[in-house]
Amino acid sequence: xxxxxxxxxxxxxxxGMNTVVGSLTKAFxxxxxxxxGLHGGYSGLFSATPKYxxxxxxxADTIFNRGGSYLMMxxxxxxxxxxxxxxxxxxFQDNNIKLLITVGGDDTASTANRIAKFLESKKYPIRxxxxxxxxxxxLPLPDNAPTFGFNSAKDEGAHIARTAYEDARTSGNWLLISxxxxxxxxxxxxxxxxxxxxxxxxxEMFNKTRINVDKIIxxxxxxxxxxxxxxxxxxxxxxxxxxxxxxxxxxxxATGVHMSYDEHGHxxxxxxxKAVLFNDILEKELNKYGLKVKTRPIEIGYDVRCQDxxxxxxxxxxxxxxxxxxxxxKGETGCMVYVDHKGNAHPLYLHELQNSEGKIPPRRVDIxxxxxxxxxxxxxxxxxxxxxxxxxxxxxNPEEYDFKKILNW
Length: 409
Fold this sequence. Notes:
Blueprint: E1 4-9, H1 17-30, E2 34-38, E3 52-55, H2 57-63, H3 80-85, H4 89-94, E4 97-104, H5 106-122, E5 127-132, H6 150-171, E6 174-179, H7 186-194, E7 199-201, H8 213-229, E8 235-240, H9 242-245, H10 249-253, H11 274-289, E9 295-300, H12 311-329, E10 335-339, E11 345-349, H13 350-353, H14 370-378, H15 388-391, H16 403-407
Parallel strand pairs: 1-2, 1-4, 4-5, 5-10, 6-8, 6-9, 7-8
Antiparallel strand pairs: 2-3, 10-11
Helix pairs in contact: 1-2, 1-12, 6-7, 8-11
């Protein structure tokens, strides 16, 4: 029987998933391997009846430039008991599988690391290579290399945001945009910078002070008041969803905004629009000061995950797939494929990336780096001491809306 490889996709979708799977299929078929696609992410590896199919050239050629993921995904995380009792070694034996390729983000990579250690401890002759994806751009790749899917998501997110900005300018309104990114603000900052948004709020900004609702609102009002001073009655504000997930539950409850709570009393933020939540809280503050500002919420998230990949990700994902083959041919395992700016593939060993808990920590925005520093210095609008006198027309205490004082920068 021919040697085979098996591919699974985990977590949530990102533009380029099919490009990776299609390119892997073409590369391995050309070198004499059978290629199997496993549906259901990691749940398939721990099932007695996994759903999988053989992928051929025609399937690969049909899907490689499309959005979404042909292989059904899941967020299944195996327990230690699953590893000991439910790992489907028979699937590998019956199909003569020599390589497991996982495609996913930080959670998928952390589970891939567990699988690599498990296979090694059991002396199973199966190698494992991970292909890093996430629109959040929060996997720790060298030289600030992006995760695949990020640039396509940013491109579509910026398209939505610049259309929103034009609506704000045309209508004299403010549009409040929430962008995906639970642990890092890369996508929000990328969208904000690309659209010259006058204020982008990301978790990394609060590196010198505790994040709370009051500071989020004051940063927003700082931009609105500054633009009023400048005679600009419109704008957009982009907020990373992670900002809200970092808030204390009691802080959110104190806003009086209606939401559901789990059995531990934590707000169920995954069930609501962060943009609507943000808009509701801001409107209360605007009314308190009698500021005549119309605001509207916009959510950017699920609408950018399954779009067709742009040329950048079509190329990058193809290089990652070919790089995965090159690493396999060299005998590598237990690693994540990294492609440098010259197109050369390198292994990033999962055990070297993990923290003490066995997880791969997210890469956050370098708030002191050039991208963030220059954006906040030259594009953003906010209150400074020079604006205090003019700002008193709108608020009695303008120093409380001073951007650098809010953040303790």
